[in-house]
Design goal:
The structure is a single chain. It is built from 3 helices and 7 strands. It has 86 residues and is an alpha+beta fold. The strands form 2 sheets. The protein has a 5-stranded mixed β-sheet with strand order 2-1-7-4-5. It has a two-stranded antiparallel sheet with strand order 3-6. Strand 4 and strand 5 form a beta hairpin. The termini are far apart.
């Protein structure tokens, strides 16, 4: 992975509905996890659910994060639905 990219991972229903488990995107160096969500949602179709659908949890480098969390080149950002138990 190049130093100026982010690895984006999708889990659970997001992986199924978006038909991908991961991708690599360029990192501008001045982004937040929320910026990434908006960028991906801008693709339309099923991607729009990332901002308009059910809540999406975020982890940056395997640590829970939120939309305001900055992301940096080389980071891994994961998006997944909230975990429910029973």
């Amino acid at each position: 992975m190049a130093d100026d990219t982010l690895t984006i991972r999708f889990f659970a229903r997001l992986r199924e509905e978006l038909d991908t488990d991961s991708e690599t995107l360029p990192c501008t160096g001045n982004q937040t996890a929320g910026d990434l969500l908006a960028q991906l949602a801008g693709r339309g179709g099923p991607w729009q659910q990332l901002v308009d659908g059910q809540p999406v949890m975020i982890a940056v480098n395997q640590t829970m994060a939120n939309a305001r969390t900055p992301v940096h080149p080389g980071d891994e950002v994961a998006f997944f639905p909230p975990v429910t138990g029973g």
